[in-house]
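_Backbone structure tokens_
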Amino acid sequence: MILDDLLPLAEKDLQSQQVDQADIDKYLSIIKNKASSENTGNTSIVNSYANMKEKHGETNGLQNMVQSMLDFQDRNIPVHEWNFEDSKGISNSSKIKVEDIMSTYIYSLGPDISCDFAKQLMLWRDIHHIPVEDTEGNLIGILTDGMIANCEDGDYISDDMKKDFVSIKAKQSISKVIEIFKSKNFTCLPVVYKQRLVGILTDKDILHVLNN
């Protein structure tokens, strides 16, 4: 029905609207090829994700899928022609941006919270870094498990947090950020936009990319 009836009707209607024939042929051919192959793209994406998940793990598999889909879209490749098996995904770190792998599920605390509470939060959530924000939501410091280990009884986060921290932007290339990690021996970098925390990137996130 699509090939024999609907596409000819669509072409005739587009021609009546004086749409350029080259554009008509281009876009209707996509529908024609998709219908002929009986591949809407959904099944291919689901199956490809299952394969990538098995090969790279859940997180890296999903990251590869997303990066591959963005790459296909940038190259204007129709969905039914997407081939994830041939895709390089995010293995090329020069093309990966911070926003592709940063964590946005963040636990942050205020400077007037006790270090003991911060320690318990780290143990409970199995995290090693806590961004510190003021009452207006501006990032003002970073607290690590190493700093927590040196806290004295009665200390507040403001007493032990690192105030002269280095921050990065979501659009920065991972290849450049890797150099910051190496040169400064950092274990995490907060990702900010207009002084507001939007994510956090850790050395473990970097290792996942390098090992992928």
